[in-house]
Amino acid sequence: MLSRPLFRIVPDNTRIRFMKGAVAGLIVSAILSSASVILAFYPGLERGIDFKGGIVMEVRTPGPADLPRLRSAVSAANVGDVGVQEFGSRDQLLIRLPVQGDEAGTQQAVNRVRGAIEEASPGTRVLRVEAVGNRVSAELFRGGLIALGLSFLAMLLYIWFRFEWQFAVAGVATLLLDTTKCIGIMVVTGIEFNLTTVAAILTIIGFNANDKVVVFDRMRENLRKYKTMPLRDLVDLSINETLNRTLGTSVTLLLTALPLALFGGDTLSGFAWLMIAGIIVGTSSSTFIAAPIVLFTGAKTLRRDTPAVPQAAAP
């Protein structure tokens, strides 16, 4: 009874013809990624304080907050364009202030806002204050982009040295498409682009690269094992053979991220929801994007070692 797993997501003898949808998968992926790039510039990502600079104040009122009254009170403090919104519950607010120039100006703006909200809603407490200047935010933004670029370069070199160039091209191209889709999801859902979401994107890149390496490794094994099998059939076979492992790993990570998204609070929810979206995108791209790219780029080269079929002797 214990000699075999008690539960399999898909049967061991599954033989789905994934490559019948190879062209459709690439077209849909290209459309979604192109739309995501356009959305990244217009309307653009919602940058967090890490990359935009400014002041964030988290406050808690004695009871349900009167937002119109508090907005009027904070606007009257003359500290610039101020945003006030609920943060997790009706008695918890997030107040955003623009950059004030120097440390003295920042402290003065915080004191003005604190006085205004305490006057409008006596008993209100300031839970935390975060301030990031323009120079620091620019450096953090540049550092985040450099981290993303280096991760792609590392994945390219790793896959290129471990596999043939066709796999490297497929892996890096698919990771780029996955990342652009995640950025599009951030724009559509309003998830802030900050250091936390950069960490989520880097984690997604690592997980998706590992998922694709597993499929690529099985393809390479089958290329040696089945010398005459057509490449399209071999790609389908490799995906089916690793399907249980791929789905099992993805579901395990989803079950880890979902509670964090639901109960981790507003600070971690963006990270967790982006992780969930990235897992779904990466799992599907291993089948419908990376594999078709290998199929099309390796149609004439991955079979170069195929032995010639002996000709029948002439009578």
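Next protein, fold it too.
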Amino acid sequence: MIRNMVSPLAILFCLFVLGMDNALAAAPVPQSPPSGGEGSSANPFNMSGSALDELAPDLNLMRPNYLPWGPLTSGPFFTGNANTVPVGSFFVRDAWSDNLMFGQGLNLSSMTGLQRLDVGLMKNLEMDVVVPIGINSQDNAGTGFRSISEWGPGDTVVFFRYNFLLENDVYSFWHRPSLTIEPQFVLPSGKYTELSPTANGLDQMGNGTFNEGLYLLVKKSAKPFRFFLQVGDIIQNPTTVGANYASNNVTFTPLPCTPTGVCQNGRFNMVDGNLTSYSMALEQILDDSWGLGYVLEVVGQTQSGSSLFFGNATVPSWSFLWAAPSFEIKYPNTKRIVVTWSAGVALPVYQSNIPQMVTPFGMATVWYNGIFGYRGE
């Protein structure tokens, strides 16, 4: 099944981290500093360090700083977590969203599945690889009332998260938050040229551009609430595309076109505008042990009519703002393996120059807790 696909790179990462975890487990880890709160993970596996003292300083360099409260939950769907995965821990995530577009004769489903692997590289540093799978379908006047569908891999995303500041009080909102920077790189692995005219643009799965982005992530806890914020900017490099190409797989019309509706044929140079992304979420955890809670999330993107480095864009500008509530739970929950679940729907608050859409979403995440636990919480 497509939903269960994981890239070979993900499997290699899993094997590598599992091997590293077994090696670390052979040497006891010194006790973490005591913490005074409920749900503490200060010493998640009750390990003591009375032997091999010469190894303790090296392990101490890798051990994360523990927080007195910070239960493992599914978390927000669109907004990242500023707290990073420790060395020896990782998670595999299968997340799906479906942009259901109506009006303007579209009646379109553009589903995306994000197969994600997240691995702790060192203290406060993690690496993430996201491989999308797209499934597009349409049935309306634009297809002669035929039901057509296409699927394939999208553009691969690789990013790193470095947590340079950790919150110091998880019970008061007015103390310092966790802060993380995230450089991001997009590789054009999705199909974007040689598109079939009979597919009505549905066989496009990527933009064909190498993109670079930089994000700032913020997290602040005030038990039982957690607040998340993510703001970033993406530079989309120019590329050469052909007929039936659609900007960001949203408009599904040949581009570029003049204001009078005359569209260019053949291959042409494509320049996307500067893309700004922003999202925030408020999570209330109703039950720590079950990871039961809800998330109220707001997410938006704005693409301008010009690129920061490459001049005027050859496609129209667009923007949107969504409100996305969701519910979350975790089961099963063991010392080593935890599975978290969430589901919700994103509803349009504001949209400009893109079709009206409603986006149901859900994700399942399998966490492997290594010698240091999960997110150092």
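About the second fold: The domain at 2-368 is CATH 2.40.160.40 (Porin).
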